[in-house]
């Protein structure tokens, strides 16, 4: 068995044996080089109660080059792409050390959920939301957790229904009254949501954006 | 006829040793650069009283800026040392030797989880790993990340492995060790504005060109250099553009290339290698670099570039190279103005792309010429050396097409006026000479005409060379004299 395989197999076994941690690493098929990691959302955060899944790819040069990870579960977080799940975290890049493990890396992801780094964002729009109106950001992140991360085993028809019926306005972290206001001017609802999200029309920031500016954005 | 006499055929009288479009430079081998680097290392090692490994790491950390390193070191030696990844705890000499520990009690490597490894290594931080992990790690850092600072593998430890340590772990892999040394040298070269690494794949030569090291110098000279490995390793010292972009300076060349990229959609059609005959509309394909086209069907002769009748091109009113600005002046409304500006651009782009394309097709012309040369040796009593005039002519045509290509980038940005007209006169003369020679090269060979053909080709080659010389010299002088005025703002000009 080559050194990489031995190491990854041991990491998977160690993680399984460690009853105290709530990190899970599972093989997707027979290969130990493409894995599925998961952990519960940290308590006292908008991610509490959610179950977050991560796609793990072990490169041929592991552990001398960092493991590749991205969120499978959709997460509303400044350092995670809301579209692709790509993660901006130093240990997944330059700060990687071969002594880090899959488990320790997943724990780092868990703590990234506790302490976002909006100055080094992966998703600029989400980061803007976070820095300008934390309360509204928390609501949205919590809403995303409810929609996407709660109870994965029961994620069947009912939650799919919830997703499609999931309130677009809440998903975008906006207020219904604002969206209604511009929809009433004759703009398409989806377009209004996109524009308001781009402009970060939330919380105190609402006062900084004139209606003209929004109409201009809508007419683009 | 000997080789010297043959070369005399092509001699162009040059006024001085140093032409105004040439720049002084020197090509250095990797060994020569290593010596320069070593001198800096010894210098710092002497001043600071540290070993050479440490001096080297300090210099790398400060991007080989000796003055700044000395200043910072005098200010706070401990802080610079630790930032450079050198252990402050022990005297630097002791970490140069890679400590090899034979384990007394069972050692489990924290990376590969292997407890059967007997050979372990650590830097002066004592973070110990097995030797095979160190080897795999250093190899991956060097090969995959092009990294020349190999840090300790422990999380958060910032110690950098000194060269002796790296060398000891790569003892059995000289290729990777050589790659590591090359990375260090490349870093040294990249940090020194007077030096540039040859951009040709797997070439390890460096060119030193101090007179083109400042940004301001690039407003007056085009620093075309070639490394000592091969005359074909020609590159610009001032910018990353491939090959030789004389006579136009880096800033203008860059602007032009950007414009071409941005407008490539609109201009793409022009690159296509087929066109329709303007008279009978049958499709004509271009092969060979000559722009004098003859329709196979209707025998109409025309210019590939402007599609105008070829007859006009041989005469005094030849103006294929000059864009008629009148149309632009008359344009009143915005729409026709933008149309005019697109047409103006296409005029220059067309000619630019055509010379590039023709130069590429020269390769074809080359093999055709080689065949002709063989033929000649059979049908005439000329020797191999004596038929070289054909090859020489093809080389010259290709070279001059490159010059012509870039003159169109220059002309696009030149402000209207006398100077531009003179520039375009020179450009036209060169272009006409090149097309003439190009056509001659593609004409069929008859045994009895070979002596005349040889004379004609040789004469025309000399003439083309002279015209090229004039364009390059005059443009270069214009830069030195500040004669060129632009129709937009150009880096380094007011
Ligand atoms: Zn090991
Ligand atoms: Zn260490
Ligand atoms: Zn070279
Ligand atoms: Zn250049
Ligand atoms: Zn025709
Ligand atoms: Zn023409």
UniProtKB/TrEMBL annotation, chain A:
Q: Which residues form the UBC core domain?
A: 3-150
Q: Which residues form the active site?
A: 88
Q: Name one GO molecular function term.
A: ATP binding
SUPFAM superfamilies (UniProt xref):
UBA-like (SSF46934), UBC-like (SSF54495)
> Which InterPro entries does UniProt cross-reference here?
UBA-like_sf, UBA_C_fun, UBC, UBQ-conjugating_AS, UBQ-conjugating_enzyme/RWD
* PROSITE patterns assigned: UBC_1, UBC_2
Q: What is its EC number?
A: 2.3.2.23
Keyword set, alphabetical order: ATP-binding, Nucleotide-binding, Transferase, Ubl conjugation pathway
Q: Which PANTHER family match?
A: UBIQUITIN-CONJUGATING ENZYME E2
Q: Tell me the protein family, please.
A: Belongs to the ubiquitin-conjugating enzyme family.
- Its name, as the record gives it, is Ubiquitin-conjugating enzyme E2 1
UniProtKB/TrEMBL annotation, chain B:
Q: Which SMART domains match?
A: IBR (SM00647)
Q: What class of enzyme is it?
A: transferase
Organism domain of life: Eukaryota
Question: What CDD domains does the record point to?
Answer: Rcat_RBR_HHARI-like
Record GO terms (molecular function): ubiquitin protein ligase activity; zinc ion binding
Matches recorded under Gene3D superfamilies = 1.20.120.1750, Zinc/RING finger domain, C3HC4 (zinc finger)
Q: Which GO terms describe its biological process?
A: protein ubiquitination
Q: PROSITE patterns, per this entry?
A: TRIAD (PS51873), ZF_RING_1 (PS00518), ZF_RING_2 (PS50089)
Instruction: Give residue ranges for domain RING-type.
Output: 105-324, 109-152
Q: Which reaction does it catalyse?
A: [E2 ubiquitin-conjugating enzyme]-S-ubiquitinyl-L-cysteine + [acceptor protein]-L-lysine = [E2 ubiquitin-conjugating enzyme]-L-cysteine + [acceptor protein]-N(6)-ubiquitinyl-L-lysine
Key words, A-Z:
Metal-binding, Repeat, Transferase, Ubl conjugation pathway, Zinc, Zinc-finger
The Enzyme Commission number assigned here is 2.3.2.31
Please name the InterPro entries in this protein's record: Ariadne, ARIH1-like_UBL, E3_UB_ligase_RBR, IBR_dom, TRIAD_supradom, Znf_C3HC4_RING-type, Znf_RING, Znf_RING/FYVE/PHD
Per its record, how is this protein called by name? RBR-type E3 ubiquitin transferase
Per the UniProt record, the source organism is Piloderma croceum (strain F 1598)
Q: What is the lineage of its organism?
A: Eukaryota, Fungi, Dikarya, Basidiomycota, Agaricomycotina
């Amino acid at each position: 068995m080559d050194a990489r395989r031995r190491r990854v197999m041991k990491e998977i076994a160690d993680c399984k044996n460690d009853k105290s941690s709530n990190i899970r690493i599972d093989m997707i098929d027979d290969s130990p080089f493409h894995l599925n990691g998961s952990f519960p959302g940290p308590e006292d955060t908008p991610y509490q109660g959610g179950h977050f899944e991560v796609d793990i790819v072990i490169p041929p040069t592991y552990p001398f080059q960092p493991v590749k990870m991205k969120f499978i579960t959709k997460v509303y977080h400044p350092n995670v792409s809301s579209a692709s799940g790509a993660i901006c975290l130093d240990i997944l890049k330059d700060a990687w050390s071969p002594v880090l493990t899959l488990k320790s890396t997943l724990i780092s992801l868990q703590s990234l959920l506790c302490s976002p780094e909006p100055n080094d964002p992966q998703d600029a729009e989400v980061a803007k939301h976070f820095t300008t109106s934390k309360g509204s950001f928390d609501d949205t992140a919590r809403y995303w957790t409810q929609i996407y991360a709660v109870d994965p085993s029961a994620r069947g028809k009912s939650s799919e229904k919830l997703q499609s019926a999931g309130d677009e306005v809440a998903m975008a972290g906006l207020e219904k009254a604002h969206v209604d206001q511009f929809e009433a001017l004759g703009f398409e609802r989806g377009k209004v949501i996109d524009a308001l999200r781009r402009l970060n029309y939330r919380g105190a920031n609402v006062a900084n954006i004139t209606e003209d500016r929004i109409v201009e954005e809508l007419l683009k | 006829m000997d080789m010297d006499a043959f070369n005399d055929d092509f001699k162009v009288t040059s006024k001085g040793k140093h032409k105004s479009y040439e720049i002084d430079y020197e090509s250095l081998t990797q060994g020569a650069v290593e010596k320069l680097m070593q001198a800096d290392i010894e210098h710092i090692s002497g001043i600071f009283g540290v070993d050479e490994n440490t001096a080297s790491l300090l210099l790398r950390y400060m991007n080989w800026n000796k003055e700044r390193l000395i200043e910072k070191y005098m200010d706070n030696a401990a802080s610079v040392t630790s930032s450079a990844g050198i252990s402050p705890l022990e005297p630097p000499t002791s970490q140069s030797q890679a400590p090899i520990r034979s384990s007394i009690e069972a050692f489990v490597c924290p990376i590969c989880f292997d407890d059967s490894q007997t050979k372990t290594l650590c830097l002066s931080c004592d973070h110990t790993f097995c030797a095979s992990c160190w080897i795999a790690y250093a190899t991956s850092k060097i090969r995959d990340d092009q990294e020349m600072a190999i840090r300790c593998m422990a999380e958060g430890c910032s110690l950098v492995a000194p060269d002796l340590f790296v060398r000891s772990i790569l003892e059995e892999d000289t290729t990777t060790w050589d790659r590591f040394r090359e990375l260090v040298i490349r870093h040294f070269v990249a940090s020194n504005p007077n030096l540039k690494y040859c951009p040709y794949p797997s070439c390890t030569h460096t060119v030193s060109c101090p007179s083109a090291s400042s940004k301001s110098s690039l407003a007056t000279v085009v620093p075309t250099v070639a490394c000592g490995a091969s005359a074909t390793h020609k590159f610009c010292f001032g910018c990353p553009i491939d090959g030789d972009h004389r006579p136009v300076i880096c800033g203008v060349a860059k602007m032009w290339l950007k414009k071409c990229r941005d407008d490539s959609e609109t201009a793409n059609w022009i690159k296509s290698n087929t066109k329709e005959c303007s008279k009978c509309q049958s499709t004509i394909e271009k092969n060979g670099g000559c722009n004098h086209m003859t329709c196979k069907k209707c025998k109409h002769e025309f210019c590939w570039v402007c599609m105008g009748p070829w007859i006009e091109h041989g005469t005094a009113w030849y103006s294929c190279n000059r864009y008629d600005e009148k149309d632009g002046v008359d344009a009143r409304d915005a729409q026709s103005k933008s149309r005019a500006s697109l047409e103006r651009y296409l005029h220059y782009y067309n000619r630019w792309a055509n010379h590039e394309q023709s130069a590429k097709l020269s390769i074809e012309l080359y093999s055709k010429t080689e065949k002709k040369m063989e033929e000649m040796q059979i049908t005439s009593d000329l020797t191999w050396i004596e038929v070289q005039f054909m090859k020489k002519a093809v080389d010259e045509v290709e070279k001059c097409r490159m010059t012509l290509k870039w003159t169109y980038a220059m002309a696009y940005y030149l402000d209207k006026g006398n100077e531009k007209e003179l520039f375009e006169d020179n450009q036209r003369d060169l272009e006409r000479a090149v097309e003439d020679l190009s056509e001659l090269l593609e004409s069929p060979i008859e045994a009895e005409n070979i002596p005349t053909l040889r004379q004609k080709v040789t004469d025309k080659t000399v003439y083309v060379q002279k015209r090229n010389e004039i364009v390059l010299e005059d443009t270069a002088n214009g830069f030195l004299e500040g004669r060129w005025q632009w129709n937009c703002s150009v880096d380094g000009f007011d």
